[in-house]
Amino acid sequence: MSSNNDAEIAHAQKHKYPVAVFFIVVNEFCERFSYYGMKTVLTLYLRDVLLFDENDSTVWYHLFSMLCYFTPVFGAILADTYLGKFKTILYLSCLYACGNVLLSVASIPNTLPQKEFSLLGLFIIALGTGGIKPCVSAFGGDQFIRPQQDKQLEQFFSVFYVAINAGSLISTFVTPILREDVQCFGSNSCFPLAFGVPALLMIIAVAIFFSGKWNYKMRPAEGNVMVDVAKCVAHAVVRKIEHREEKHEHWLDFAGDKFDRQLIQDIKQVLRVLLLYVPIPVFWALFDQQGSRWTFQATRMDGTLGVTTIKPDQLQIVNPLLILALVPVFESVIYPCFKKCGLLTPLQRIGTGGLLAGFAFVVSGIVELYLEPTYPSIPDAGMTQLNFINTLPCPLNISYINNNQVKWIEINATSYSFERNLNNQSIDITAQLISSPACQQMNLTIPTWTGRIKGASTKAFSVIVTGHNSKLDLMRMENEEPLDKSSTGQPRVGFVFRQDDQVPNQGNITLKAGERIVSFTRKLIASSSLFIQTDVREIDAGTYDVFMALRNGDVVMENLIGNITVVQGGSYTIVAQQSHFNPQLMNLNNNLLLPIEVTPPSSVHMLWLVPQYFVMTVAEVMFSVTGLQFSFTQAPASMQSVMQATWLLTIAFGNLIVIIVAEAKGIPRQSMEFFLFAGLMALDMLLFFYLAANYTYVKVEEKTKVNEKVGDEGKETKVPDHSLSPIKLGTENSKTPTGTENKGFSDDTPM
Description:
Blueprint: H1 2-14, H2 20-40, H3 42-48, H4 54-83, H5 85-106, H6 114-132, H7 136-141, H8 150-181, H9 191-211, H10 225-242, H11 261-277, H12 280-287, H13 293-299, E1 304-305, E2 308-309, H14 318-340, H15 346-371, E3 383-390, E4 396-402, E5 405-411, E6 415-423, E7 427-433, H16 437-440, E8 448-453, E9 460-468, E10 471-476, E11 492-498, E12 506-513, E13 516-520, E14 522-524, E15 531-534, E16 537-538, E17 542-552, E18 555-566, E19 571-576, E20 593-599, H17 610-634, H18 640-664, H19 670-693, E21 696-710, E22 715-728
Parallel strand pairs: 3-9, 11-19
Antiparallel strand pairs: 1-2, 3-6, 4-5, 4-7, 7-8, 9-10, 11-15, 11-16, 12-13, 12-17, 14-15, 17-18, 19-20, 21-22
Helix pairs in contact: 2-8, 2-9, 3-4, 4-5, 4-6, 4-18, 5-6, 5-9, 8-9, 12-15, 12-18, 12-19, 14-17, 15-17, 15-19
């Protein structure tokens, strides 16, 4: 007994846990923080700063993602054939950090040509992150002695997986806060900081990785099996064309004159698995829209949650949180229960996951249908919108001629009416006050107004109904109304107020809510000095006291004129009225403000997106995690890098599908696009189930063979000897192939 303990102690001392993996794990945490932190805010940067529309922002976002998953193939070839893993990771990480720094600097206004250098930075980042993607986890695995340290290796991959998700979680939460809650360079947001922090983390990642250089075990480049596979396939195709008279059982056998028979057999098995990969890109087309279409959808919703507000891009944190929670539940509870019933074989799990992804888009489409009534009504091309705002204490009739038709509207006292889709030519308008006791106090000797008002195509303008020089007067504001919802989801607010002859030199308007202070700069109307318009600003949702700065000589006073409440997603024009001009307001202390809701607020709460995130995460667990495990167990050991590269390419092609759909621009409503993807996913899974029904599982049977004698005792160590035998799909009548899952294999599968 004592001798056994001594042997175990001696064995542990002989193979200590490699210190080098500490540098690799910390490096991975920093790199994943950098990548996901940058990518979380990327779509809003493309739209709000580079000024792409939502379709083009979606295209650029998925083009970047696609490149990130194409380049791993070249990174693997570079590492295995030329540089080795260490140099490949180091060189490409330096390039990666340069791309991050360039993107951060380019996001600073008036430094570099913003659009061109931002896109260049993204291109460099894609080369860097894609190039190191297949190398880091494999390089960590190289630090262990196999098979003596297999248990430690499994622990390493678990810690590696935690580092990935920790970096993703923290950055997904933090960078939206840096983007929105910090103001810099004269902007209401701070994308340079939101990109700068990930850039700093990437520089730290490079430094940490390099500092471990003297602890690493470095294997020289030994060649890449993907190159051999490509050469073998190409040779077989050429010989099949050139030697049609030859007969072979399989077209790959044409390569038998030059390539090893075992390599050919391995490639045949890979091709059988890869046939099942054909439908997989559609899943990634849906999955990766969490960072684009679903983020844009969140910007049009209400994120208010008590005293705080959820940022639209911050909602992406739901996916990694649910992944960490659901994977153990599925592995330890759900899958074993279904297995006892003979249900949910690996391919059935993958297909079910795909169907759930489609269902997640059905849910998002339903949410979009509820959102559509809250969207702004934008005039069509060649049409305009006039917002008649009656500031008087009496109702009036307005008639106008549009497209040779006369229309009458009645507007109540201190109320408003929107007339949409008017011809943007000059419109003949007649206004007539409706007599009432309140009107008599106005002393308007001429209670009618006739004239022409012109709009502008696709724009809306306020038309103020007021009194001037004892006459009824209508004045169109010069600046257009803010019809669109803000890109951040915050309320948009602008003020219109009458120049008060009794109080000379009126100043700006200030909003106060606790420690929050927002100032609005006045703009003088070009055609008349009677009304003043302020700039339109995005502010936090909430209730504000409104102060107007009044100057009389050298004395400046802040006059409280009321309070307003603005809701997330709404656009408001606030008309500040004069109590001495409007007798109806003389005795009212808090009714000097007339709020005009130009665009309805976002009434659907952002948390209604959680169900679709939940369904999509369940789909990911069943589809992606199972797919990786399936590929790992079904392909020959020599072909693992080929399977990994191909899996990453399916993600790239999935992003390409999104690009094609977005570029088509033939779908008028976002809800229809969501339902289109759901239907496409359903058809795609029908194809997958058809292919799966014809697939024969490969069973890994562990047989033991006597290995070399090791240790002083001369004990025999038993190691697995993998042999292959077929099992049919429908009845998984034997145990699932065993083996340790390489979690590093899936380190960059979107979480």
